[in-house]
Design a protein that fits this description.
630 residues; alpha/beta; Rossmann fold; N-(1-d-carboxylethyl)-l-norvaline Dehydrogenase, domain 2; seven-stranded mixed β-sheet; five-stranded parallel β-sheet; 26 helices; 53% helix; EC 1.1.1.44; transferase; gluconokinase activity
Length: 630
């Protein structure tokens, strides 16, 4: 929506426009800023502008308004004194006119009190003569305070348009936070949560009661009433767990109309998303499978958003996604169209796989420092803080530092947490897809398996009693080891990302998705869980090189760290510290950088017992041979 605050000079257009823009979460523009220099000089001399003076100014504004609408809306302060001027500006249908009305004496006093403005108070008479009060729009008396004017405008806007712009189904932590994120930016939001007696009752109304400052949110616990409250074409975000999604769609589809858009913002398996996209398309509906990362804080303040599906559906909701997304260093929204079908959820699935490996790698570094070197948690936090400040900055490292400082009384809270990691399935999905496509997934699958092994707590306790570890007598230079561990962790992180992006590359090629890896890295630079300094580097690297481990800017860094990496893993394993991600990362690096591997023996073995044939180095590629080995 475009909101134009109009009136004669001195009516308070700029002050009210700025406050209204802030309240609606929209950018503010002042038409005075677009006057050509000649017009400004003319007004400074007390000479009124004529229609020919205003024509190019109005045309420039008219050209900008559609752009502002596409970008999500705006508030414009513009005198727009005559009806013919307003017709020039009416280049889009969604314009709300807000006329600041007031007596000549009230406005004159304001003009006389104003300083450093090019429009002198003597110009008021000419403006009042030219003014043609609109018979439409919202009229507000300027004798009110700016805050009162804005509140009255908001109230009248809601009365004029009782329908909500955007709907959210599912008010768990993420759904509620995203609904409030939208509402905080001026979007009229309708919220629905299922009604389960004794378990989930009045959830939407509870959200409203907890956030009384938001006058643009409405709550429902009847699905049909919720759908009818939305303006058309409807835009509905589903934030429910994947297991309940099909049942929710079955209830929702009969209530929708062709052209409506349904966004699945949960963690759905990408093949299910492709199936649902086809199902809704058969009903004339758009299904936009969208990965969202950032947790509760990200959802409320700005997550990373990965939408996929039909482009026509995406374009209907793009401005809303861009509005609520985090911003990168260039202030661009951390969201972009990923690709068709289930591409959005696929990329989110890989994001979670990288997340699993990053978390496990940090846990292993912590374990080495505490269990092998005996360093206290506060000191480990200091070591990690040095890493954070010198080249390894990331959100996960940042929160790990906070965790290592958190006490319950005099005791570290971490020590009271059961060492049994849970998972919601996305990591396992990505490992299964890697197997399906024959893509190496070493560190990411190792992280998934490490969580599965951690769940065997009772068995691990019993086994620990039987395998009482004999710690070897090896002298460790603490400072040297910590420096080597930093290098090992750094290279492991590069490998984690290489493996994740490699899976995306393979699937993209086979499914013709044309994923843009630089752009995916860019939207992961803020808002998401795996945001980091490394991700900032990847934006540039993926513009020039498709594979990280051969990127010139990284090769020397990895090569120089390789011996330290190997020493850390060897020493850790010797001391009995499990290192599934660090060790699999090292193995991946060694295997990837080995020109002649032992796979020739495997091929010979396969041919021996199964006549599977093999290729030869000394023969043209594509020729296959079989040998009678005995």
């Amino acid at each position: 929506m475009i909101y134009i605050v109009m009136g004669v000079s001195g009516s308070g257009k700029t002050t009210v426009g700025l406050k209204l823009a802030d309240r609606l979460g929209l950018p503010f523009y002042d038409a005075d800023d677009y006057h050509p220099r000649q017009s400004v000089e003319k007004m400074q001399q007390g000479i009124p502008l004529n229609d020919s003076d205003r024509a190019p100014w109005l045309e420039q504004l008219a050209d900008l308004i559609p752009t502002w609408e596409v970008e999500g809306g705006a508030v414009l302060a513009c005198s727009a004194l005559k009806e013919e001027y307003r017709k020039v500006l009416q280049t889009v249908s969604d314009i709300s006119w807000i006329y600041l009305d007031g007596s000549r004496d009230t406005i004159l006093k304001r003009l006389q009190a104003r300083h450093a403005h090019f429009m002198p108070s003597t110009m008021l008479e000419s403006q009042l003569e030219a003014l043609e009060k609109p018979a439409y729009g919202i009229h507000v008396d300027v004798s009110l305070s700016p805050e009162q004017i804005v509140q009255e405008v908001i109230s009248k806007l809601e009365h004029m348009n009782p329908h909500s712009e955007f709907g959210v189904i599912g008010l768990g932590v993420m759904g509620k936070s995203l609904a409030l994120n939208l509402a905080s930016r001026g979007v009229r939001v309708a919220m629905y949560n299922r009604h389960v007696p004794g378990k989930e009752e009045g959830i939407a109304e509870q959200v409203i009661a907890e956030n009384p400052s938001f006058t643009n949110i409405k709550g429902y616990d009847q699905l049909e009433e919720f759908v009818q409250s939305l303006e058309k074409p409807r835009k509905i975000l589903l934030m429910i767990y994947a297991g309940a999604l099909d049942a929710q769609l079955e209830a929702l589809i009969p209530l929708l109309e062709p052209g409506d858009v349904v966004i699945d913002g949960g963690n759905s398996f990408y093949k299910d998303t492709a199936r649902r996209t086809a199902l809704l398309a058969d009903n004339g509906l758009h299904f936009v499978g969208t990965g969202i990362s950032g947790g509760e804080e990200g959802a409320r303040k700005g997550p990373s958003i990965m939408p996929g599906g039909p482009r026509a559906g995406y374009e209907q909701v793009a401005s809303y996604l861009e509005m609520i997304a985090a911003k990168d260093r260039q202030a661009q929204p951390c969201t972009t169209y990923i690709g068709p079908d289930g591409a959005g959820h696929f990329v989110k699935m890989v994001h979670n796989g990288i997340e699993y490996a990053e978390m496990q790698a940090l846990a292993e570094a912590y374990s080495l420092l505490r269990n092998m070197l005996g360093i206290a948690p506060d000191e480990i936090a200091a070591i990690f803080k040095e890493w954070q400040q010198h080249g390894l900055g990331s959100y996960l490292l940042e929160i790990t530092i906070d965790i290592l400082h958190k006490k319950e009384g005099d005791e570290l809270l971490l020590d009271k947490i059961l060492d049994q990691a849970e998972q919601k399935g996305t990591g396992g999905w990505s490992a299964a897809v890697a197997l399906e496509y024959g893509v190496p997934y070493d560190t990411l699958s190792a992280a998934v398996m490490a969580r599965a092994l951690s769940a065997m707590k009772a068995e691990r306790v019993k086994a620990a009693e039987r395998y009482q570890k004999q710690i070897p007598k090896v002298t460790i230079d603490r400072s040297s080891f910590v420096a080597s561990l930093k290098q090992a962790y750094q290279v492991t992180r590069i490998i984690n990302h290489e493996i994740g992006f490699n899976l995306m590359r393979e699937v993209s090629e086979q499914l013709n998705w044309e994923l843009n890896f630089s752009e995916i890295a860019r939207i992961w630079t803020n808002g998401c869980i795996i945001r980091s300094e490394l991700m900032e580097e990847l934006v540039t690297i993926y513009q020039q090189e498709p594979r990280l481990l051969v990127a010139p800017t990284l090769v020397d860094k990895i090569r120089n760290a390789q011996q330290s990496f190997a020493a850390v893993v060897a020493l850790g394993l010797q001391y009995g510290v499990p290192l599934p991600v660090l060790s699999s990362g090292l193995n991946y690096l060694l295997g990837y950088s080995t020109a002649d591997s032992s796979a020739n023996l495997i091929q010979a073995q396969r041919d021996y017992f199964g006549a599977h044939t093999y290729q030869r180095k000394d023969k043209p590629a594509g020729e296959y041979f079989h040998t009678e080995w005995k």
